[in-house]
Specification:
By secondary structure, this protein is mainly alpha-helical. The protein contains nine helices and four strands. The strands form two sheets. It has a two-stranded antiparallel ribbon with strand order 1-4.
């Protein structure tokens, strides 16, 4: 795909997040069904700016997504990893009670976090730890509005500390062996996507 078209998709994605931020505040019932499609669009923009000529990158990305899905299924079924929680209907189609789009989104955030942080630190372990903390911070922000958007709900209303410690571990270990491939991704686009999700969910936390 030509670089011009890639840029158009990125600009369109930014417009979607800006309009969605306002839309969720003004008319959440109308904008909510578009959430899974927005996340798929985000993933699409991330991938088209990635080094797809290197097939290992796609393997790494979807391997992380698959591992994330398996971990989510175990978590939902047992409550042993993240605590007792269940998914609502806000994230679209579910398989084994887990929305398919959630694992894709987490894989994207993990990869984007590693790509951005790897430009700051050189040591692999340091990058993986900082990126895992960053992704977990984003999860913390999202969880402030997740029940209101019918994304997911923890028993008792609030997740435990174990939830966040588990996410740090998941982000670290699912990406550990794919690190050399992941860091070849696009830093600028990764940074923009991270900021879009942080700003979007922080905006919703403040205004809804």
């Amino acid at each position: 795909m030509k670089e011009t078209y890639k840029s158009y998709f990125l600009y369109f994605l930014i417009l979607v997040y800006v309009s969605g931020s306002i839309g969720f505040v003004v008319n959440p019932s109308f904008f909510s069904p578009f959430t899974p499609y927005t996340l798929l669009l985000t993933c699409f923009v991330f991938l088209i700016h990635s080094p797809l000529a290197d097939k290992k990158f796609l393997v790494a990305f979807f391997s992380i997504a698959f591992l994330g899905f398996i971990i989510e299924v175990i978590g939902v079924k047992t409550g042993l990893i993240f605590g007792r929680y269940s998914y609502g209907n806000g994230l679209g189609y579910k398989l084994l009670n887990v929305p398919l789009v959630i694992s894709i989104n987490w894989a994207m955030l993990i990869c984007a976090g590693i790509i951005v942080v790897s430009r700051i630190f050189a040591n692999k372990i340091t990058v993986l730890i900082v990126a895992a903390l960053l992704v977990t911070l984003i999860d913390l922000v999202i969880e402030q509005v997740a029940p209101k958007l019918d994304f997911w709900q923890f028993e008792g209303g609030l997740p435990s500390l174990n939830n966040y410690l588990s996410w740090i571990g998941v982000a670290f270990f699912t990406s550990y062996f794919f690190y050399p491939t992941i860091i070849k991704g696009n830093r600028n686009v990764s940074f923009i996507i991270l900021m879009l999700q942080i700003i979007f969910f922080t905006f919703l936390f403040i205004f809804i």
